[in-house]
Each structure stands twice: as C-alpha cells, then as structure tokens.
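User: Could you check the structure of this?
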Amino acid sequence: MTNLSVMTIIDKLAYLPDKERLVAVVAKSNVPYSGDITIPSAIDVEGVEYRVTEIADEAFMGCKELHSVVLGDCVECIGISAFEGCSSLSRIEFGNAMHIIGMQAFKDCESLRELLLPQGIVVIGRCAFAGCRGLEKVELPDNLIDVEPSLFDGCCSLQRITVGPMVERIGEYAFAGCSSLTSVSFHEGLLSIEGWAFRDCSSLDRIELPESVSAVKKGAFWGCLSLRKFVLPLAVNMLDQGVLANCMALDEVVLHDGVLSIGYGAFYNCRSLQNITVPVAVVNVGDQAFRGCSSLKTLCVLCDAAPMCSGDIADAEVYAAARLAVPKGKVGEYGFARVWERFGNIEESVP
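Assistant: Sure, the predicted structure tokens are below.
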C-alpha cells in the first residue's frame, strides 16, 4: 500500500492509484455511495491509465441507498466487508477477471435476489453472503476450492445450490438457517461436512452425500425438519454428536457395517423414526442418542457385545415402548448390561 497515491475522485467514485503498478483501488468515500454505480475497467489520472483491479475493504459498507453495481472487467478482488449492510443493493454484476471475494463482502445485503458468479472465482471468504435474506438463486463457480464457514448463513430464501467439483469442505454453518433450501447437489471429491453446516434447513427433504465424504461433523443436519432419509457414506466411521437431531420427518437411516460409534444426541427428537439398526462394529452409543424418538418400534443391535453407554441413550417412553432386538444368545447379556437393561422388551431376533 506504500505506493498508493492521494485519493482521486472521478465521477463521484474515490480511487487510490498505485503509480508503480499502474492499478487503482476503489476506496471508501466521505460521502456515502448511492444509486446505480458502474466501476470502469480503467481510469485516467493526469494522462496516465490505471487499471481498476480491486474494491477496498469496507469501500461501500453501510451504503443503504446503493441499488446496483456493475464491476469492470479488470476488477479481480472484492475486499472484506466491501458491500456489507448495503440493504437496498439488488443487483451486482461481476467482471470476468474476478477471482477473490473477501469475508463478509455482501453480508446483510437483504435485497439481493440472484448471484451469477464468474467461473474464475477460487475463493469466497466466510460470511460473504450471510444474512442475504432475499437471495433465491446462486450459481457457485466450478473452480471454488471450499465453501467457507457461514457463507450463506441465514439466507432464508435460497432454494437450491450445486456445490462445485473442486470443493473438498463445506464449512461450519455454511448453509445454516437456509429454511427454503430444498435441493443440494454435491460432486465426488467432497471430503468433509463441518459442524452445523445445514442446521435448520427446514425444507430440505433429501440429501445424497458422495462416497468420497469421510467426515460429517456434529449437528451437520440438526433441525432439517423435512429430511426423510439419510445414508451414511462408507468412509465415515462415526455418527457425530447431534448430527441428525430434530430431524422430525426422518423415517429411514442406513448405517454401514464400518460404523464404530453413535454420538451424543445423534437421533435426538427424531419423532418419525420407527426402526433403526445399530451396525455390528459399534462399540459406543452416546447419551441421549435416541431420546425423543417417540415412534421408535424396533432398535435392532447387531453387536455381540453390548455397546458401552455412559448414560441414558433414550427416555422412559422409548425404553417402555421400543423392542430391543439383539443377536442370538445375547438376551441375557443385554439384560444385565448398563443402560440396555432399561429396555422393557429385549428379544432374540437377530440371526
């Protein structure tokens, strides 16, 4: 930044020219920006042409009367909180040179309806579009590396999303509170879904995770009220804490034989779940794992040795109403095992 010259005002836009690199940064003005703005590809300062390559941090932050912005084809980077709180901004048009959008760049831009992001974008910072309550449609670029934490947190009008083929991680709270989201598409190569990534996506009725996924972290699908079926990818060997808690429509869960642990509150308050099978390799079932599963009829446990439980895995209603199905010859062991002995109906029904 040491090469930046004194601020220059051209057509009511403030610029900081860099005389050495012959580029200019759009800067914050003393007078709030408003209306419809077009940022040119280049400006002329005293007969010298400067390419406009960057929007500075907080340049348009809080400009509540800003309606639309067209970015020139030389703009490569949008800074941190550059348009945060521009509550009337309804249209943003990106140039083809764009490759970085900073953290919180468009946070709380409540009037944005649609985003068409250039394919050249490789980084979008955390919370970049958080709180964009009116945002309905987004096309994520194929070259995006990760979906950062809280990227679309609280975008309650967003209806569908396709995660690009380069993405390996969905960050914490990335889509939390996207209550209108009905469809999410992933590509093979995705490795991790971090904690609370889809929390309270109450309209999401199906999710198909690619087999490349090796980690689904705590609370990832907490409160997905419409989700009916969940299949755990083969590379994931534990069901984390609260991962499907409060999924009240969930009535089918498929866990593979490599699962070793079922975490605290994993199925908490899954009121529609009637039958579930605990795979043969499970060694631990966490507290409250099946608490509130008021429709549970059969809990089928394939383990020869009763999995360890440090505390109650269910409530009195579940213990009384659900049938615990165990392997042949294991009724006695389960009948004396900590926590498992609280089930009122233990039957030998697994060959």
